[in-house]
Specification:
3-stranded mixed beta sheet, two-stranded parallel sheet, Rossmann fold, alpha/beta
């Protein structure tokens, strides 16, 4: 059961590195005007507001995109209730070891139904 009084962002070092890689991609960089300033603020803010965990287990659940396993490893290490993502490989799983995998829209619907 999700306790919406305790919503936290959980990240691992691997996910922070992946996040930096994605937001530094040409596709994202083309959409951001003041690239260095905005991107550094985004990364710093996300890290500051997150709990960083160190996964001890390497997983091989998502064969189509092995990098997605980092999300599951982080979720397991962080003992989370939900993974919120738009990643289709993860969403196909729907659940992993009791951890529900939902879209941001589904999360907002769950959250608004509780409050």
């Amino acid at each position: 059961m999700v306790d919406f009084n305790e919503v936290s962002s959980i990240l691992s070092v691997d996910l922070v590195l992946e996040y930096r890689k994605v937001i530094s991609s040409d596709e994202i960089m083309d959409k951001v005007e003041d690239k260095k300033l905005v991107l550094s603020k985004i990364v710093q803010r996300v890290i500051e507001k997150s709990i960083i965990v160190e996964p001890t287990t390497k997983l091989n659940i998502v064969k189509e995109d092995p990098d997605d396993n980092k999300v599951l490893e982080c979720a397991k290490a962080g003992k989370v209730d939900l993974v919120i993502t738009n990643d289709n490989h993860l969403l196909k799983l729907k659940e992993f070891e009791g951890i529900k995998i939902v879209t941001p829209q589904e999360f907002l619907e769950l959250f608004s139904n509780i409050n």
